[in-house]
Batch of 3 targets.
Target 1
Amino acid sequence: MIYLASASPRRRDLLRQMGIEFEAIPSNILEVRRQGELPADYVVRVARDKAQFVERLVKERGLPLRPVLGADTEVVLDGEILGKPQDRDHGVTLLRRLAGRAHEVLSGICVVHRGSEHTALSTSRVTLSPMTEQEIAQYWETGEPLDKAGAYAIQGRAAGFIAFLDGSYSGVMGLPLYELTGVLKKIGTGSA
């Protein structure tokens, strides 16, 4: 049993897929990139910040002490973290920028347990097919891009636009299961 420092339905689904029992406690931390912070360092730091925040909540609430999992996923194009769309115009702009191009998806995890921290990073390379203005508009109207890094969901309708994936499908979804399994085995709570 672990605590998941996230409200993400995708992360919940992935943990269930692996048979990992969890209780979700959203972290609600402010995610702000520091001056000069590299994207890979940023996603691992945010994952750590989320896990540490929830670990403090668990202690304050007197809940049973268990490993706490924090995760963060970002879409990076030409070294720039794209983030989630702020509104329709921003989302359409993100999709236009990604269409027909390769980009990276970085997924960092951190498990805080018994005074130690275990981190891992998954780096995937994704290429979206070229998309027409009509396809972009229609995809936006599905509502799927609203809360997604880079304004797309590989596990949803955007799957039809994924021309190439080199890396972790679950990492692009938001929780790299291979890396997570390795960390859980390391701390002695692994499943599978």
Target 2
Amino acid sequence: MDSVPLNFLNPIAGTKLENAQNITPMECLQTIALFRLILPTKRISICGGREKNLRDLQSWIFFAGASGTMIGNYLTTTGRAAEEDWQMLKDLNLSVASCCE
């Protein structure tokens, strides 16, 4: 199955987009839903920028159509503590699969 990673901008000081505005949590969820609509057979993973853009609505990514999320740190920024993500998945009663299944 093909996988599509979906990242949200996390403005970083010293870059050309350092003053860019984060999109709202609802805009993130709408984006995920749109990707699900146009890519119904793909695995959609929410990765970078989710902490800054989704804030307290991170668990809603699955209701918007995401198949999974990246846990831990990203290429250029740190992510949430893995324990918090594991707890989120447990609270949602979601099963965990490897990236290659």
Target 3
Amino acid sequence: MLVITGANGQLGAAIIENLLRSRPAQELVASVRDPSQAAALAARGVQVRAGDFAQPGTLRTAFAGADQVLIVSANKLGEEARRLHQAAIEAAHAAGASRILYTSHMGARPDSFFEPGLNHAASEAMLAAQSVPYTSLRHGFYAESALHMVGRGLQAGLLRTPEDGPVSWTTRADLAEADARLLTEPGRFNGLTPPLTAAEAVTMADLAALASEVTGREVRHETVTDDAWVQAQVAHGVPEPVAKLLLGSFRASRRGDFAAVDPTLETLLGRRPQSMREVLARALQSPSQA
């Protein structure tokens, strides 16, 4: 029995969709906070169970009979995220799972400038402290996050960012496919995976150049100070704490935290991962994507 948490979220739903191509639906359990939101999965034969990291008692039922539990990391920060992940890890252990998988990040490190990197490093330490085999899926930085962070600038033709470094932006779809593959191959990785990344790392200047190519119009890039960038984000309606959180990703990229490129994802997929050129072509609706 394979249990996938957050199964009606973007990543969890995509993982289950990939699993359904190779595994019988009755072998899959979708753990969600609100089962009514996963009625479509239930209609396809997937077992849908109520499971809420914030209510650990629900996880005993959600994880019952699990051979493997895939914990999709919570969309929370700080102590709250660590508490939620601890509850899920302990529940998977108590359920007798033979392996726990966790969706981590290539930039996980205890001294990260990027707060999610701190959370993932703490969760990996929790996994290592359990007496259960585990696999921490060190995902590349989501390509969708890049679009969220700089899409306005790319559309406007002027991308202003703080000083940055190369990032191996990787699509959620490719990562979901790889995660599903690893769930069906229990002995593939123990402990931390290599970085699961696309085939190249690019800077913000590179993104501007790629956007120019796929749209046929010039997109310029300018580097601004950290403070100026935060102020500009706030002026566009981004809450200041969120702007400072995002600034942490630029600071981490300067240090090279997201620059690694590894062939593991391509090997798992059996094809080259999607590139940022392809991602931008779709997002910016360029005629060149035809």
